[in-house]
TrEMBL record:
Listed Pfam families: TctC (PF03401)
InterPro entries linked to this entry: BUG (IPR005064), Bug_dom1 (IPR042100)
Family named by the database record: Belongs to the UPF0065 (bug) family.
UniProt keyword list: Signal
Signal sequence, start to end: 1-31
CDD domains, alphabetized: PBP2_Bug_TTT
Protein name: Tripartite tricarboxylate transporter substrate binding protein
Gene3D superfamilies: Bordetella uptake gene, domain 1, Periplasmic binding protein-like II
Presence of the UniProt keyword Cytoplasm in the record: no
């Protein structure tokens, strides 16, 4: 803007424009040296779940490729909307990032939170896993059919834990109820980690989770998977059938993506993108995902936005059909 035009504006307007310009200049200037202090990574879920595990693994390897560490901060509650909201509203300077999960769309569509997936700039999707139905190893059901028959015989009595009201795992439970014409007693926890602990402790009869939360327990003989909501059987659990094989067409999963607030400088986003690329090639990082039965993904943020648009349309339709939040 030229000095002549600027002088013609009201004093308040001139001050506002100058302040805004100075802020933009300050953020851009600092972006060139990014990062000069520790970076905070918000996880919208409790310690012990798949999101927490992914975040800490990434923070560990990323810290070795940056001059400053990444510190994981758990902000669970309200189906992820507490953490998502804090992350979206943070100063767009790259020092507060968020590990975004599908609940950023699900919570908003159910009226639980006000933050939407469009409120972030996405660096990359770094993980994706299908959802499985899991029971204790000593449970009386060895097949999906046996479990569903038991649930149908006593509607509303079989307790099934999930990671929170309106969260992805809760959606999986409700979708199965509709498909199989059954009724669970859905028990919400403050994250997938606590939900799985509830199953291990005998507080509930079953849970919906991904292999990232239950894989080690399944292989260790404490839990067993009855079926998985994927298009094909999983490599590490090839004895477990898909729901589709059992004539229940359900394919649902979760993902984790590294994101920054809208308005974050391109230089910062580019730096973070390089860190994700380096992490994806790190042998220790890759081995961790393999040992924890987590799906390792490295999908560029711009490409991932296309996936998000398509997925959001699916959630709009699904949430409406299942009457969630009503």
């Amino acid at each position: 803007m030229s000095p002549r035009i600027l002088d013609a504006l009201p004093k308040f307007t001139r001050r506002t424009l100058c302040a805004t310009g100075l802020l933009a200049f300050a953020i851009t200037s600092h972006a060139a040296d990014y990062p000069t202090r520790p970076i905070e990574l918000i996880v919208p879920w409790a310690v012990g779940g798949g999101s927490d595990a992914v975040a800490r693994a990434f923070a560990d390897v990323a810290g070795r490729n940056l001059p400053q560490p990444i510190i994981v901060v758990n902000r669970p509650g309200a189906s992820g909307s507490i953490g998502h909201t804090e992350g979206a509203n943070a100063k767009p300077d790259g020092y507060k990032l968020t590990l975004v999960t599908p609940e950023v769309s699900l919570a908003y569509l159910q009226g639980i939170g006000k933050t939407q997936w469009q409120d972030f700039n996405y660096v990359a999707r770094i993980n994706a896993d299908p959802i499985a139905l899991v029971v204790k190893a000593d449970a009386p059901w060895t097949t999906l059919e046996q479990f569903l028959a038991h649930v149908k015989s006593q509607p509303g009595k079989t307790t099934v834990s999930n990671s929170g009201v309106g969260a992805t795992y809760h959606l999986a439970a409700i979708a199965l109820e509709k498909k199989a014409n059954i009724e669970f007693n859905n028990v919400p926890y403050i994250g997938a980690g606590p939900a799985v602990i509830g199953l291990l402790g005998g507080q509930v009869d079953a849970t919906f989770a991904t292999t990232g939360e239950v894989g080690v327990h399944v292989q260790g003989g404490k839990l067993k998977m009855l079926a998985v909501m994927s298009d094909k059987r999983l490599k590490d659990f090839d004895q477990v059938p898909t729901f589709k094989e059992r004539n229940i067409d359900l394919q649902l999963g979760t993902w984790r993506a590294l994101a920054a607030p809208k308005g974050t400088p391109p230089e910062v986003m580019a730096t973070l993108r390089k860190v994700v690329d380096k992490a994806a090639q790190d042998p220790g990082y890759r081995d961790f995902f393999k040992r924890q039965y987590l799906g390792l993904v490295n999908e560029d943020g711009d490409k991932f936005r296309v996936t998000l648009e398509r997925e959001n349309a699916f959630y709009v339709d699904t949430v409406g059909k299942l009457a969630l939040g009503k």
